[in-house]
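Lab notes, practical 5.
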Amino acid sequence: MNKYINTLSILGFSLSILFLTSFTSDNKKTNDWEINKLKGKVKTMKESSYKAITTVSGAIIKDTNKTEYVANKDKYIIFNESGYRIEEMRFTKNGDVAYTFKFTYDENQKIKEGSLLHDNPEYVSGYSYIYNEKGELKQEEITDYLGNLMYKSIYIYDDKGNIAEYQRYDYTVEAYYDYDEYYDDYYEVDYIYDKYIYTYDPSGNVISESYYGEETSSNYKYLYTYNDKGKMIEHAYYNQDSTLIEIAKYTYDTKGNVIEEKYYTNGTTLDKIMTCTYEYDSKNNWTKCIIFENSIAIMIKERKIEYY
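Output from the prediction step:
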């Protein structure tokens, strides 16, 4: 089975390391139900986020006057009966649809193509996917509404089917000149190149992620630690000088959801504690989540779930 990575923040409110939408937090390619940590045959899911307000009496209520930052977290997803998303909508602070993603799949549930739809045609884009002879995703291309190439992603695998390297090319930049020391001359560049390198433990969990940027010196490295259930319990962040910047530690409830994140500056000084309380439906999917930072409620997330 192909192994995939999701280095998104576990609760969705802390630092994102890398956004690769096809990856799951336990690194195994499954479907979008598992990516969204959903149980059962979910047909649709609407997730809404609100700024949390604590009243004088101590009650925690949601602020319905949304900012764009909070509204950008809202989403409505339609899944097929195999658990793959076929449509995803994002919203403005007024509740209007900001843009829509649509996806189609082949008979093996491999994604064939996608599109981003927007009222402004200049924001419309298309997604195409190429697979290798083993059926592993090899290349993704994103084009604009005129069909011009904007981004290209390349995936390289190890002999166990893990993604060993991820390369991203950005063609949306204006051409610029870079210096070649070997030829002692400048050459024209029409894209920006980024690369991510991954290593794994014997269980297929990613244990290190290294970023290399051609355009910047902001190279960094993350190291990950897991418990015996394959849940990430710690990640450490190092900058380009191999200096330890931060360590985050995670605690889970019995249903596998994160209930606490502790962040340590330089690995030793406790900087903040993020906690989350949940309410669940009969399928053990959470329907409400209140997020706290240093014991102060900062956000409320709600989910409405429809099943097949």
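Observations recorded by the TA: The chain has a mean pLDDT of 85. The radius of gyration is 21 Å.
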